[in-house]
Amino acid sequence: MDFQDIILKLDRYWARQGCALLPPGAAGRADFAGPLCLAGAARRGPAPDGLPGLYRYRVLLKPAPDGARRAFLDSLRAVGIDRSEHDLRWLPSDGPGGTAEGAGWNVLLDGQPLAGFVYKAAAARASAEIVVVLERLALVSQRKRSAAELSWAGRLTYGELHSGEAA
């Protein structure tokens, strides 16, 4: 599955869950009062959360459904990740999500960082935020060892697309 196919499949999955899809770089309004489900891919540089990769897929669920973790796991299945073939672990996060305002996890896929999952319990409503490293999904899906080898679209590789950039 090409890198861009992963993004398209995630978009379709989260749209079926009722999420509004945002274009890259668009920021969701954290103060929005109504039900909110935002999803979208964006290009990022190195982030303070310690997750590797240039591309992230962010999902914000407000209020968080009871099955937010299940929805995340189902999104992995939507992009072809068979959990019976991979080691998926949820490790409590020491970062901003692991505070009194909520719980946070670092999600590892085969021992490598895949996602951050934060569940915030607010007085009025709970929210969940999921940030997935798209390179990790593509590496597993395409069975490659380096991001440069990844198929972006057809014969165009991630390395060709980003030649001269740190990935």
Topology of helices and strands:
Blueprint: H1 3-16, E1 20-21, E2 36-43, E3 55-62, H2 68-78, E4 88-92, E5 102-109, E6 112-121, E7 126-133, H3 134-142, E8 151-153, E9 156-157, H4 158-161
Structural write-up:
With 167 residues, the chain is of the alpha+beta class. The protein has a single domain (3-23, 34-161), classed as 2-Layer Sandwich (BirA Bifunctional Protein, domain 2). The protein is 23% helix and 32% strand. It is built from four helices and nine strands; from the N terminus they run αβββαββββαββα. The protein has helices spanning 3-16, 68-78, 134-142, 158-161; strands at residues 20-21, 36-43, 55-62, 88-92, 102-109, 112-121, 126-133, 151-153, 156-157. The chain has a seven-stranded mixed β-sheet with strand order 1-2-3-7-6-5-4. A two-stranded antiparallel sheet has the order 8-9. β8 (151-153) and β9 (156-157) form a beta hairpin. The longest helix is centred in the N-terminal third of the chain and has 14 residues, at 3-16. It is globular. The chain starts with a helix and ends in a 6-residue tail after the last helix.
